[in-house]
Amino acid sequence: MTNECWICGKQEPMPYKCRYCGKTYCSDHRLPEQHGCAGFDENAPQGFPGTHGNTHSQNADAEKLIKDMLKNTAKHAAKGAAAGMLDRIKRSMYASPSMAIIYVCVVSFFLQFIIRGYVDFFWLFPTSPQYLILFTRPWTLITHIFLHASLTHLFFNMLVLFFFGRELERRVGNRVFWNVFFTSGIVAAIGYILTGTGPMIGASGAIYGVFACLAILAPEIRVYVYFIPMKIIHALVLFALMDFVLIGAPDMIAHTAHLSGVFVGLLMGMRIKKAYGSRRFGRAHDYYSQR
Fold first, then answer.
1. Where are the domains of the chain?
2. Of 79, 160, 240, 269, which is the most buried if we count CB atoms within 10 A?
3. How much is the pTM?
């Protein structure tokens, strides 16, 4: 018998096994009405009111009682499932900075459309050259990271962060990962402000820093760029060259921010590698990227 609660996934030293459905639960979900037991009504005792020759009134009362019981059971089950999901999200966020960033980016993406009548996300939180000149809205050096212009923009940024961010965490630890990510994101914003025009949003600069740092620490990692296999260091050089060639192109992409993030990632990667040595960073892995 597993020690994991079927509802919330909590590890229980002495789990409770439901006699109706046979599943195991923690102390918070041990009762049938707390976990929405599917076998409860099927295994109800035969002496329950309204089951053997009772009057029409008794049957109606019993039916009402069963409906109320099922309603309460569904309510407790939904509440328990929601609590279990939130608990899983919190645990993954604490365990992985990359997952925490992904959750925040996804929530902010949908939130910016839900409350657009009350708060204009694209006015308050993007970074822009005029903010550096006027020295206003300094928080945008960080907040721009968590905004994305479209679902495609969000998806590909979070996909790269999901694979390569977690790999960097595993190799350097959470604290160092946070330093690499936010330093790259801030310097990427400054690099764009000094060369670009108009507002900028997106986590690309910070993610490029993570990617570059990982390329220095584990250059033998193999990735697939447009389904072509290559080492991660070669993929980084390819992406950097593309951004350099496209500087100034009218494609709505902050190429200078990407290059600034790469520059920071390379410097931090070399510094980390010098401090800890190459043996700390493990063996190569295969991942997929389509940029």
1. 16-91, 97-289
2. 269
3. 0.65
